[in-house]
Write a structure and sequence with these properties.
copper, 8-stranded mixed sheet, signal, Glutaredoxin, 222 residues, alpha+beta
Length: 222
């Protein structure tokens, strides 16, 4: 437990140091921004602001990937009747991936009993050629993965199709930016969170989706 706590704490400390970050650099010269070339807004102390916006073009493809245990997983089955929270990482990353993964580790606690029952966390590898299920499992274990959080890899072609459908592919994986997708496939509604959002912020976004789902269920008499 001591090593697990240290891994998570160190990653969260790194998150604070990587305000505007891609995997290839901790910071950049003035004018640097996201992959589109748009300058990133700055918050207090020069840290990049966390931004949330609707993501209308996101769709969960009917693709089969492989989880950290080597079991086949269909993405639409993962999404069925649940809110998905998705990020994009790879295990050889030396900057933002560990903080993002540590945040998901803390998010599990924020979600409590809703994890797996109502919500699933999904971390998709940007480097499927390297990230075998065994490697993903070792990585996931360092961050205290619980049921309801899956790490996915697969063939290069299948992973590419999934990343394209979700808007998570980066031409150069070392330069990907921190992105979290939150949504409910049945509603076709998604939110894209750019930046290294703290667990409480992500939990707030998730609860908004859960509340909308409960309201819709009551309105339909369910």
């Amino acid at each position: 437990m001591r090593s697990l706590s240290s891994s998570v704490s160190n990653a969260l400390l790194l998150a604070g140091a990587l305000a505007v970050a891609s995997c290839g650099r901790a910071s950049g010269p003035p004018g640097d921004g996201d992959a589109s070339g748009t300058p990133a807004p700055e918050g207090p102390g020069g840290a990049a602001a966390v931004r949330s916006a609707p993501a209308p073009d996101v769709a969960v493809p009917d693709e089969e990937l492989v989880d950290q245990d080597g079991a086949p997983v269909r993405l639409r089955e993962l999404a069925k009747d649940r809110v998905l929270v998705v990020n994009f990482i790879f295990t050889a990353c030396t900057t933002i991936c560990s903080p993002m993964t540590a945040i998901f580790g803390r998010l599990q606690g924020e979600l409590g009993d809703a994890l797996e029952r109502d919500v699933r966390l999904v971390s998709i590898s940007l480097d499927p050629a390297t990230d075998t299920p065994e490697r993903l499992k070792r990585y996931a274990d360092k961050f205290g993965r619980r049921p309801g959080w899956v790490f996915l890899t697969g063939s290069r072609e299948r992973v590419r199709r999934v990343l394209d459908a979700l808007g998570g592919r980066a031409p150069i994986k070392e330069q990907h930016t921190p992105v979290t997708l939150i949504g409910r496939e049945a509603e076709g509604r998604w939110t894209r969170v750019d930046g290294i959002a703290p667990p409480a912020r992500l939990a707030e976004e998730v609860r908004a989706f859960l509340a909308r789902g409960q309201t819709a269920q009551r309105a339909s008499g369910g």
